[in-house]
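This week, look over our next protein:
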Amino acid sequence: MNLTLKVWRQANADVKGKIETYQIEGISPDMSFLEMMDMLNEDLMSKGIDPVAFDHDCREGICGMCSMFINGEAHGPDRLVTTCQLHMRKFNDGDTITIEPFRAKAFPVIKDLTVDRSSFDRVQQAGGFVSVNTSGNTQDANAIPIDKHDADKAFDAATCIGCGACVATCKNASAMLFVSAKVSQYALLPQGKVEAIDRVLNMVKQMDEEGFGNCTNTGACEVECPKGISLENIARMNREYLFASLKG
């Protein structure tokens, strides 16, 4: 396939970026989107042009690094996949593809398509953990009975990879789906009950301090989430937050 790529180029967060247009030829439909980007960069470097900076790591849909906004959609036109799992067969010969970074106040551009998502790390550090008693009288986690439905819901929430597609998709750049998944992961399990009140209050507070917007109730975040995280988690987090506010 021969394609026209319109790629966002920006040296750093302090300068104005712009769209640059590149032509690329000989793309196989079986290539992943990132392999296509590798080919583009090889071509640019052969011409003495600075390659396009973009995040990637595992290329197996697990790490959440490959944050690209492709033709107006986080991770591109496919569903329940990350950018590294998106294949070029989803496009046609002669297509024009626009590639931009995830845009949000809390995700400042580092360079080109690479953004700083350390705000997610700080939200997680505010409460997305369980403190474990290591006094020698610890209880084996496998000995704690957990309802199968709760365990399944907790596991579904835990599949969130923190890629930021929900933020990039939301017109308010809300992180509610991400935070609610992290809250739900523990709220549904007995190990998470001890710190439940502090957890939801601290994580929501940190989310607001990072500059994320409010939930729009549109549901676009769930549609674009590569792991299909349910909006049910946002409702659960709201209940947890209300209870914690009254209790605290």
In short: The beta strands are 3-9, 18-24, 69-70, 73-74, 96-100, 109-111, 114-115. The chain has eight helices and seven strands. The mean pLDDT is 95.
